[in-house]
Structures are given as C-alpha cells and as structure tokens.
Design a protein that fits this description.
The structure is a homodimer. By secondary structure, chain A is α+β, with helices and mostly antiparallel strands. Chain A folds into four domains: about 15-130, Beta Polymerase, domain 2 (2-Layer Sandwich); about 145-260, Poly(a)-polymerase, middle domain, CATH 1.10.1410.30; about 270-345 and about 395-445, Poly(A) polymerase predicted RNA binding domain (Alpha-Beta Plaits), CATH 3.30.70.590; about 345-390, Alpha-Beta Plaits. Chain A is built from 17 helices and 15 strands. Chain A has helices at about 5-15, 20-40, 45-50, 75-90, 135-145, 150-160, 175-185, 190-195, 240-255, 270-280, 295-315, 360-370, 400, 405-410, 415-420, 440-445, 450-460; strands spanning about 40-45, 60-65, 95-100, 105-110, 110-120, 205, 220-225, 225-230, 285-290, 320-330, 330-340, 345-355, 375-385, 385-390, 425-430. In chain A, the strands form four sheets. In chain A, strands 1-2-5-4-3 form a five-stranded mixed beta sheet, sandwiched between helices. In chain A, strands 10-11-9-15 form a four-stranded antiparallel beta sheet, with helices on both faces. Chain A has a three-stranded mixed beta sheet with strand order 6-7-8, with helices on one face. In chain A, strand 10 (about 320-330) and strand 11 (about 330-340) form a beta hairpin. The longest helix of chain A has 21 residues, at about 20-40. The first copy, chain A, is globular and about 85 Å long. The first copy, chain A, starts with a helix and ends in an 8-residue tail after the last helix. At the A-B interface, helix 9, helix 12, strand 13 and helix 17 of A face helix 9, helix 12, strand 13 and helix 16 of B.
Chain lengths: ~475, ~475
C-alpha cells in the first residue's frame, strides 16, 4: 500500500534503527541460546519484536518459555519461575518477579525491558491450558501475514500512541499491539483501516477467520483468529473506540504530522489552575487516599467503582456533580469531583409511603406529628398519593458530606475502602492542586478529545502547517 | 344510625334552624308559583334544599325550569333565559346572567343566592339532551332514599368542609354535595362510610346501582345511579381523596370537635413570613400576572398548566424547584416557586450527537472547534459515545431566566399566556409577599395535610380536649 510523503516522513522517524534491531536481536539470541543450553524448556520470542512491528525507542522484549503440557499447573509455576530466574540471574542487571495469570520474571538486560514468561507448549490453540499459552499462537498467526504491512502497523501504533489510545491496560482502555496488527491485516493497510473506522458504530464485529463462536457485549469486537471465543478488543472502551473514529475522520479529511506527533498537553501551574477554576465558577473537591498496595490492573477499576459510588452519594444529597474522574499514583490516589452546587438550603423533601398503605402511613405520620418544629419545616402533606415532609437536611455542605462516615458506607472498591478506612483527606477548590496530580488536574479542567486537541493546536500554529511536513 | 354525643352536638350546630327552613321554603314556593302563573315551563326545586340536606347558614337555592324537549337548543336558551330573567326581575334585588353548559340566571332574593336554570324535561335519564337535564333526576333519586340519612349527610358535609375538601370546583378538586349524599347512601351512614374510606385505595369503584357502563381513569369512581357512563367523583383529585382517607382514619381513632370546626389556619404577617423563609434558607420566586377575564373553572386549570411549564423550564436550566403552587384572585394571579438553587456556575454541560452519527457529529465538532475560548470551557470530548462540550450558561441566575422571553415560550395556558404577554412581574424572597396573597403564601410556607393541621392544633390545646365537645 503506497504511503503519502507525510507518512513516509513519519515512518522514517519511527522505524527501528538498524543498530537498534541488531542489539535487540543479539540480546534475544543470547537468551534463547541459554535456554537451549539448560534444555528444560523451549524458548520463543513473541510480541512486536518477533513480528518486526516494534517502534523506534521501544525497549520491550518478550520471551516465552514453553514447557511440556503434561506438567501440572504447580509444576509449571515452580519449574518455569526457577528457569526464568536462572536465565535472568545470568543475564540481567536486575530482575523481579511479577504476576499476570501466573508468575513470570521481568528483567532489565542491556537497556531492554525483558519479560521471561513460562507457558505450556500446547499442540494447537484449541488446547490452551492457560491464558498466556495463546501468545505464541498469536505470533505464529501474525509473523508471516504481517510482512507486507509492517509500515502500516508502525503508522497505526504511532497514530494510536499520539492519540492516547494505545494500550490495553485498565487506565488506557485502548488498543493493544496485537489488535493494531489484526486491524491492519483485516482491512489491508493503515489507510483502508481509517476509511473503515470512520464509519464504525458500536456493535461492529470484525472476524478475520469468520469463526466467531459466541456473542460479545463490547462496543468493538475483533474475534481472535486463534480463539473463536475471544474478543481481542475487549479492553477497548466505548470512549477510546469513538476517539479513534474521530481521529480517523480528522486524519482522512486533513492529514498532518500532529496525528503522529501532537504537541504536548500543557500542565497548568497552580495559579493558572486557580484562574481557570475561578472562571468556571464551579466547586472542585478532591478525595486523596493512600494508593492500595496492588497493581494498576486491580486498583484502577476499584478507583473507578469508588468514584461512581461517591458521585452517587453527592447526587443523592443534592450536590450536583458536573464531572468526576480519578487518578492512581504510586503513593496516593485521587477522586476528583466538580460540583455545580456545594451548599444547599436546610430544607429537604422526604417522601414517605402512599397513604393507602395503612400501617406504614400510620408509622410515618405518628413519627412526624411528634417531631419538633426545629426539625420539621412542613408536612406531613400529601403529594401524588404519597406522604411527604420537609425536614432538616443532614448535610447542607458538600464538604461535610465528604468528610462524614457516609463516604465509607457506599460501594467503594474493596482495597480502596480498606485504604480509606485508614486515612483520606478532603480538599476544596484550588487546594485540590498538588504537584504530583498537576497533569491530571490540568486535563480535567481542560477536557478535550484527542481530535479536539489536534484541531486546537493546529489553529494556533496555522492550518495546513502539518500537511506533508 | 345512632350518633355519638360529639356528633349530636355537631348536628345541633349545623342543622338548619326552623325559621331558616321556613324562609327558604317561602321563597321557593313564591318562585314556583310565579313559574306556574307564567306557564311556559315547569318549575322544580333541586339541590340540597330539595333533599333537606343543606347546612345551617347555606344560602343556595337551585330552581330548574323544565322546558318541552321538542325545543331546539337555541330555542331552549332563548326562551329559558327570557323566562328566568322575567322571574328574577319580579323577585330579585339583583341578578346577572351566568354560563355553565348553557346560560342561566343567578339572582339575589331575600338574602338567598338563587340559580334559575333552564333545562329539558326529558322522560328518563337515558334521554338527556344537555348536561343539566341530569340534575332533576339526581334530586328524584336522592330525595326519598336519603330521608333516614339526613343527619349523616350533614355530618359528612361539615366534615368535608372542615377538611377543605368540600366542593367540586377546579380550585378545590374535592367532594360535591351530591357525591356526599351518594357515599352516605352507599355505605349506609357517616360512620360506615369513614370505616370504608379508611381502607380505600386509588382505583376503588363504588357503583350503587351496579350498572357501570365504561371504565374510568380517576382515582375514586362513584358511578352515577342515573347515568352508568358518568363518574360522580371525576372532580376528586388523588390528593383530596387521600386527605379524606387520612381524616377518616384520624376521626375513627380519636374523634374530636376539630374535625368539624378546626381552628383557623393562621395568616403570617410579612415579618413572620420573612423569618420563616430565612429559616428555610430557600429562594422564593413569584410570577404575578393580571388574572385573565374568565371564570375560575377556565383560569385555574390554565394556571396549573402554566405552573408546571415554568417549573419545567426552571428544572431544565438547573434551578432545582422544591415546591410550586398557584393562586387565582379577582385582579391578579400568582405562580409561586421555591428553589433550592438560585444561582449556578457559568459552566454548563451540553450533550451533542453520538460520534457514529457522522453528519451531525461533524456539524457539532466544526461548530465548537470554531467557538471562542470565552464561550467554551471544555470539549468537544466524548462521554458514553456522545459528543459533549462545556459552554457558557445562558442564565446563571433564576431571576434572569424568569424575566427572559423563554418564559413566554413554554406551554402556558392560552389565556395565561395572553395575560403575561401584556405584563407580568417577577418577585424574589419576601418581596413575593403581598397582602392579598398572604393566606396563600402562609399555607405555602407551612404546608400541612388537613389531618396534620388537626393533629398539630390538638397538640397545642391538649390531647382529647376535643372529644365529646
């Protein structure tokens, strides 16, 4: 597929340099030969290095250790980890044990970030014994087919990185490398993919092998060629999918270098953030907690769940939330809320049972007939058949609600709740601004889709500047 | 049905005095004999006087003029009104033409409020030619049957009046006199009716003649014994029905004189109202307009419709309405709103089309990419597949919205809209208080069901005081 001058220029910048490729090959060869020497498993390079689809500057090298499928799961973990550790001890400057579906070793070797992952050497993809067993088959499927499309994959990966939608991790909820490769293969190149994506709708199904064996609920479905029951794009959120659609349309209409190398999003200083907040006239509240001691894949979904739960609490108490977002950092995490209302009148409407529910109606009226005038402003009266009173509001200020025990009683994520039970702090207005959260707060206060960001930065540097160079 | 000492005491107070009965009979006889003398129609006393179910102090006398059914509608109106005017000219101190389904004469005769209503003398209730033709049949149905229950009807009418639920007019939406009579007849007395009512639910159907000939959507259905297609309690709102249920339960549990003679609801002075409003911490807004020159039955439903329309406008713009009500007076009418929020931040979220609607998405993003930073705070960004911007709010203050042309663009009642197009004023806080609306504002700020009002006044005068007198 012929590339435009712009795309050729981008490719020149992102193709791995020859010395880079040589270096990575050398390290890989050395590790493979050491595995052969030990002889307890078969080594296999997988991932983008194996497929030639990695980008200049990438430092990831994934090597799988394929063990005999007759091993038990415990044996695989024990022998696998022991072999990986042995290799790493011999080759790496440093290494540590990590855990995905089962444990593996992450090592730092001559500037590369090397994963040594034990798995089963199964005969075919239909006999998978663990989730990672699939990866070698992905490499086998892609390796030859992708050869005519290497440049397209590089362009797509850079395009997705630039748009902030590359990566299947929980924080990004975007497009994995393997997914990029499959999309390029399915549509026959970068440009045809963008043409197609500009017309995508949620619910679209891409099934390269035409062998889908179940229904999927995700907005974007790409059936794994090596597993008819797996959606390769299960991680892609509706928002990331739509951001990709927008970027595809924008690029097709008016291509530019910004789609691959966007200007960095500015981080606001505390004074700039304060000005912006004052201009918005809204009320910012941050709940800061010690980050639970677990990996991002566990903590981030819990933060999101907690965010929605606290948002619901604020809404139920009448403090209208305009927007909310969360961020996880090494030490601390933040739930951030922008309110339209931070203070409410002391009167609150409380709706009771219908009048015709005699027992509950009697309980309700007896209770409120006995209520002091200090705590009851009106009622009981009847509205639409229901008994209603207007009573004293428990929390007239959002800050009081957020500092109350109620926050710990909503549906927080398990480890978030544990962390908050130990300690959390509530901040208001510009006091939410903390150095380590400055980028997060900046993009919260100035929220744009990736496409809008590119359009706006173009406006400033002049239209068309990006075209062709 | 035996009455309690309390009920006997009430009856002694509300039964018409002998001289009162004599006087009303004399006036009626005189008018009937004048009708006979003229000879153009047959005269008939209807309503509570004809049935002996009127209450001491009532001044209403209804006399129907029954014309030959062969007259056309135009002839009936012409001859009927001419006869009624002739009678009134001879007997009344003053009189005027009024209009219900067709025109009639309302006259003031020796302290009585006399209606002279022309109708057709149809053979049976199945041959009604106009809505008022039904009334003579109501009297014929009730007159003999009600004799053993006169006291029960008097008690029920006084009970309903005291509870503010007597009258089928648009403002009250309560229980008409004929309905009270039918209810007493159906259940066999005042006490059995209250027993039954305490267990009523919306949807109950009372059908004395067991001849219902259609479905009804109203919460309380009492099928007219003289018309199987008419619900006598069509005018009773769900709220009035429930208030009656509450009062029935309260009276059965702990009867008292207050159920027939409640203490008057206090009218707040401007200072008291200001204090109460300050204590509630809410924001009161009144929209005052010249009352359209039509009868209550036409204006009140239009005021209610307008109230809901303006309430919707306030809600849509983010000004949370706690409660709203309206009131019609001779000269001016008021729409009254109590807000929880009267000012909002300048930022407002505006949701556009879904990203996958390519044409509209392009229009939306093009528009907002070109929007100045002054008017656009964030976006376009994507949320749940939809394009979203945060832009400048048109009305940050409820007062500005209520004074804007938008108020005239919502679904106001026709004549209310015409009146408001000429002029209306917006008042805030205690400035809503105007002498003529003082009782309305007082009961708005201290809203109770009739039952609550009785319970509270008992509390103050001491429990049980009412019992037996």
């Amino acid at each position: 597929m012929k590339k435009t001058p712009l795309e050729e220029e981008v490719l020149a910048a992102i193709r791995p340099r020859p010395e880079e490729a040589r270096h990575i090959q050398q390290v890989a060869e050395r590790i493979l030969s050491r595995i052969r020497d030990v002889g307890r498993a078969e080594g296999m390079v997988v991932g983008s290095v194996a497929r030639g689809t990695w980008i200049h500057g990438d430092r990831d090298l994934d090597i799988f250790l394929l063990f005999d499928p007759s091993l038990t799961r415990e044996e695989l973990e024990e022998h696998g980890l022991s072999l990986a550790r042995e290799i790493a001890a011999a080759e790496a400057e440093s290494f540590r044990e990590k855990y995905a579906e089962h444990p593996y070793i992450n090592a730092s070797i001559e500037g590369l970030d090397v994963d040594l992952v034990p798995c089963y050497r199964v005969e075919s993809a239909c006999c998978l014994q663990s989730a990672v067993d699939r990866t070698p088959f992905h490499t086998l499927y892609i390796r030859e087919r992708i050869k005519p499309f290497i440049d397209d994959v590089l362009l797509l990966k850079q395009f997705a990185k630039a748009g902030g939608i590359y990566g299947s991790d929980q924080m990004t909820e975007g497009f994995a490398g393997y997914l990029c490769e499959l999309l390029v293969l399915s549509y026959g190149g970068f440009s045809p993919l963008l043409e197609a994506a500009s017309r995508w709708r949620p619910g679209i199904i891409i099934d390269p092998e035409g062998h889908r064996a179940r229904d999927f609920s995700e907005p974007l479905v790409v059936v794994d060629p090596v597993d008819p029951k797996r959606n390769v794009s299960a991680s892609v959120s509706l928002t990331r999918m739509c951001e990709f659609i927008e970027l595809a349309r924008g690029y097709l209409k008016n291509p530019g270098r910004e789609y691959f190398f966007p200007p960095p999003r500015p981080v606001l200083s505390i004074d700039e953030a304060a000005d912006l907040l004052a201009r918005r006239e809204t009320f910012l509240y941050a709940l800061v907690l010690p980050t639970p001691p677990f990996i991002e894949e566990i903590v981030v979904p819990q933060l999101r769940k907690s965010l929605e739960a606290v948002r619901g609490l604020l809404d139920r108490h009448g403090f209208l939330v305009n927007r909310a977002d969360c961020e996880m950092h090494e030490e601390q995490s933040m739930l951030l809320f922008e309110l339209l209302v931070e203070e409410l009148p002391v009167v609150v409407r409380h709706t009771g049972p219908p009048v015709w529910n005699q027992t509950n109606a009697a309980k309700f009226t007896t209770k409120y007939h006995a209520c002091s005038e200090r705590d009851l402003f009106s009622g009981p009266f009847i509205d639409d058949g229901l008994l209603v009173v207007e009573k004293r509001r428990t929390y007239t200020r959002a800050a009081d609600l957020l500092r109350s025990p109620e926050v710990l009683q909503v549906a927080l994520g398990k480890h978030v709740k544990q962390a908050m039970e130990r300690s959390f702090s509530v901040h208001r207005g510009i006091e939410c601004y903390r150095e380590e959260f400055a980028p997060f707060i900046s993009s919260f206060l100035q929220k744009y889709s990736p496409m809008t960001w590119i359009a706006r930065s173009r406006e400033k540097t002049g239209p068309g500047k990006g075209e062709g160079g």
